[in-house]
């Protein structure tokens, strides 16, 4: 079964500055010598203000994946309250 995935990939402020000011080290994608596959060009990237709309639209089939710091995920609860995920169905392995 396929799921909709909400990926939080918060690099943090220190990594963000390093990527901006040292592109010769981190590369144009911010991943150093790693080049993302061309198939990733259709990936949608949204800011935190779009998160509630995404959660409500896909709540019955949503998996939330957080890599890196938890700042963006925590900000979701600060902005929208503790019940923001109440309608998201938990998945069991």
Question: What layout of secondary structure does this protein have?
Answer:
Layout: E1 4-10, H1 12-21, H2 23-26, H3 51-58, E2 62-68, H4 71-80
Parallel strand pairs: 1-2
Q: Brief overview, please?
A:
The protein is α+β, with helices and mostly antiparallel strands.
Q: Can you describe what's shown?
A:
By secondary structure, the chain is of the alpha+beta class. The protein has one domain. It contains 4 helices and 2 strands, in the order βαααβα. The chain has helices spanning 12-21, 23-26, 51-58, 71-80, and strands spanning 4-10, 62-68. A two-stranded parallel ribbon has the order 1-2. It is globular and about 45 Å long. The chain starts with a strand and ends in a 13-residue tail after the last helix. The mean pLDDT is 75.
Kindly provide the radius of gyration, computed on alpha-carbon positions and rounded to a whole number of angstroms.
Answer: 15 Å
**Tertiary shape:** globular
**Which structural category do the helix and sheet elements fall into?**
alpha+beta
* Number of separate structural domains: 1
Strand content: 15-25%
Q: Tally of extended strands?
A: 2
Helix content, binned percent? 25-40%
pLDDT under 50 segments (min length 5)? none
Q: How many distinct helices?
A: 4
Mean pLDDT: 75
Biggest sheet architecture: 2 strands, parallel
Strand order in space, largest sheet: 1-2
What is the terminal-to-terminal distance? 13 Å
